[in-house]
Amino acid sequence: MKKSYMILLLVSSLLLSAAAHFFFIKEWLEGRFMIGPNDGLSQMVPFKKFIYDQYTEGNFFYSWEFGLGGGFYSQLSYYFSTSLVFLVTVGIVFLLETMKVIEHPDLIFWADTTLFVSIARLSGIILAATFAFRYMGARLMPAFTGAAIYGLCVMYMRHVIFWEFFSDAMLWLPLIILGTEKIIREGKTGWFIAAWSLSFFDNFYFSYIHLIFLFIYIAFRWLIPLTEQEQPRWKQFRLFFFSGLASFCIGAISFIPAAYGFFNNYRPPYEADIPLFHIQDNILYASKYVILPSILLLFLFIRPLYKVRPFKFFAWLSLFLIVLHFSPLAGSAFNGFSAPQYRWEYILSFTAGGAVAWGLQSLNKIRWKPLLWATGIATIIYVLMEQLMKEAVALDFHREWLLAVSFLLVAALLLFLYVWQKKAWLKLALQVSVLLSCLIVVHEYERLTMSEKFNVGTVSRGFLQSPEYDGAEQRELIEKAKEAETDPFFRIDWMNGLRNNTPIVQDFNGTSLYSSIFNQELLFFYWHNLKIDMGRESVSRYATLGNRANLHSLLQTDYWMREKQKEENAPYGFSPFAETENYIMYKNDWPLPFIRTAQKVFYEEDLEDASPLDREHAMLSGVVLKEKTSQSAPLTREENLINQAGLETKGAAYENNLLQVTEEKGGINIIPPPSASDEGDYYLAFYLKNKEGNGFALTVNDYRTTRKPGDSIYKTNVHSILVRVPKEEKIKLRVPKGTYELKDIELYEEDYEELRAAAAKKAPSPSFEWKNNRITIDYQNGTDEQYMVLPVPFEKGWHLKVNGKKQPIEQANYAFIGIPLQEGDNHIELVYYPPFFFFSVLLSILGLMGAFWLIRRSHEQKTP
């Protein structure tokens, strides 16, 4: 391509990208952001801020600040930790910060950059798709138009606004197709290896999606050859296999730790039926995922175009993907055979762009009669769809329908004129009209769907500094706690509303996290081992410690902050520390040291039938280990008082484990037996499930939590609940009107003797340092302590040396690190690297060597 054409293409793609973002450019000038109010503000912006801060401080793998602590390199690889677009952004921003051009980037800075990075990314996507179509034989203008259909698809904007890292995948897809065509046509492997290496490194999830599409693409290519001279299929297969293997190895340094993080996460099986076929949206003009260009519908019914092999290929491939779009089973397959998700439809936009590109290039093959038939059929389809939409949904899509029909009629008119006159300017006018229609569709999608329907227009600079997100009063109390503490590892139990990543936003060590990938040991710790209610059921969040004082002390959570009208459930033994007009912070009267040692050893196997309260006591008085190697220490178990308690119904009937609530809100009252003291708490445990499958709110006295509907893809399938209740004469369990299964009710009294004893125990005073991914401890064991326990989550990747010798790490207290101690001096070194990291580095080196050999060999061989 000539240099002048290249410059023109670069400028055109950038201008087209900017035009596609025109709505959000205006919004940005008025103080609003191109960010969704939910996941955008709760995950995307905080994670970018967090990773930038960690990387630029020289910490690449593990952080105590990531929820309760975790390997963020692997657990955030689904998001930004290995995103190439983000890493380039980090490099540029860090350079600007180092040169003092900008201050240290805060949250608002990262919110600002979303728009500008998106403009640059979309420009790159259009360029990449143009190059792919050009290589396949399309002329420059049709190729650019087809690339615009791909880049300006509604899914790009949806992804950027809600889950920005998703949109990076659109960069790699055209390059993968270019590499695939290079192998099929020339037997050259360079582009294929480069594109797949980038994809494997960037995001394991979308590499999986691209791999599925690659198989589909190759199958269609073998069915519909595009050129007369293509490599033999056996040779293609061999090159695909070895090039793919080399690419995987190159990307292994990112892919393997990321894949491990995914498999070490836990998602309950999706239990709902997944139908083979279901029409869930209107992809002609009113879909959230993909809107087919009107001209594509016109081209699909023009029979002479199918004599053009590239058009036939992309048309049939598009039709096949349209069928897959309406198959929840296919949506499940693209989502790892889990709940159906619609995240892959940008691929359909790519194939649609290819079909339009070759349709535009083959206008000379169109005749009057086929065009007339196609226009009539397409118009009838739009009219029928309008009627179906009126009957199927209550929403009004008449405006969108009028736009789509207008685009169709304009395209048809220009086609008729071109068939009649054969003027070059008519072909240009048709292509310009397609570009304009794409811009109008994406602008309307941004304005109506994103900004108004999904409330993106509410995300402003003012909101990011408001009490609903990051209020000044909240930060004031957090800073007071930081000033009062000399220990940098203390935690604060606080989050703003349902924003579990508030600790990242407000720069403190917290007890909550919202992410799609977790260390599953922490999830099991919450769901099963200790039954900690989070205030909201979810598979992708954990939050708070159930206001349970024992857990607060064990996990260094010595501060508890709430709005003043929500302070009734402060943990027992916490005293007011500081307050502002609207918020109050409490401080723990019985804190425990970060490093604890234990002589008593308990085992999970022996505590299998113990209550969560008994397990708390075992953790306070000793250590609970996973692997049993000796006799468990004796443990006095707390008595279940439920048989001594009274029970009465309120607005409900309860019999044979069935609770039928007849009033708007009702349930049962539990009257505990007389107690020797008014001090302490009750622990109320029970199994509760809505028989009708509805989501509901549950209250126990002043405590409130919510449960997901039965068909939610985010439900935990855990129905055993434990609620800590400050001592009162009645424990009131309330749920909305409905029918519930309520059983296995248990009631325990907690006087906190074990916590007081643990707090009074003389704390070890070892030499201790934690820097990035390395912990060093020097401890003199002169009291025959058996184990050291750290409130650091147990996960693969930690390596332990004691006195210079490698030692296995014990899984202690269900989800944390336990270290076997020796008598006398214990020089302890703990180092974290992502799982299989050094093996992955070795694979990457071998992959680069293999890629160099494959590329050199494929270029040396002559194409037949």
From TrEMBL:
Highest rank taxon of the organism: Bacteria
Residue ranges crossing the lipid bilayer per the database entry: 76-96, 108-133, 139-157, 205-227, 239-263, 283-302, 314-334, 346-364, 371-389, 401-420, 425-443, 836-855
Pfam family, one: YfhO
Keyword terms of this UniProt record: Membrane, Transmembrane, Transmembrane helix
Keyword Cell cycle in record: no
PANTHER family: INTEGRAL MEMBRANE PROTEIN, INTEGRAL MEMBRANE PROTEIN-RELATED
The protein's name: YfhO family protein
